[in-house]
Write a structure and sequence with these properties.
mainly beta; single chain; three-stranded antiparallel β-sheet; rod-shaped
Length: 174
């Protein structure tokens, strides 16, 4: 008589979706493709980790959150398939979190009414999906093209300011 032995399953591929345009609030899904010569009904187990060594659960789905995920983080899904005889195969895939550009919502110059000796203050209002600590940069210009520095505050002086001048503050957030 002959006894048919067990054949260990084989992990063919582990895939994280999406594979591109991953942000700090993307939902990642891990899937595994395997083969089992014995045709056993198998289900994979999953384990998520980040490149700093922290574990992030055992579900097939990982929902990233800007409070804990940052641009540049690498998340790895490890999938394991184990047959009834305890033979297993493992594979993994990784995804890197990209940066989402901040969005400038408004630039405000205070006060609204000015004279040739008013001190102007430029304020920037922005949002950043990555919750990064950002600081705007400023640039003041006059309608004749003259530059007036990069501070958030511009003090006008009658020596260079005229009643019909138009001053523009450009704020940039990167």
């Amino acid at each position: 008589s002959a006894t048919v032995g067990n054949t260990a399953p084989e992990m063919l591929d582990v895939i994280i979706e999406p594979s591109e345009e991953i942000t700090t609030s993307t939902t990642l899904t891990c899937d595994a493709v395997w083969r089992d010569a014995d045709d056993e009904d198998l289900s994979p187990t999953f384990s998520w980790s980040r490149d700093d060594g922290t574990d992030h659960g055992t579900d097939a789905v990982l929902v990233l959150d800007p409070a804990s995920a940052s641009p540049g983080d690498v998340y790895t899904c490890t999938a394991t398939i184990t047959d009834g005889d305890g033979e297993s195969a493992t594979g993994s895939d990784s995804a890197t979190v990209g940066n989402t550009a901040p969005e400038m919502l408004d630039v405000i110059i205070e006060p609204g009414e000015i004279t040739t000796s008013t001190t102007l203050t430029c304020e920037a209002v922005w949002s950043d999906a990555d919750d990064e600590d950002l600081s705007p940069t400023f640039s003041w210009t006059r309608d004749d093209g003259a530059d007036f520095g990069t501070d958030a505050v511009l003090s006008l002086d009658p020596l260079f300011a005229s009643p019909d001048d138009v001053y523009t503050c450009t704020a940039t957030i990167t």
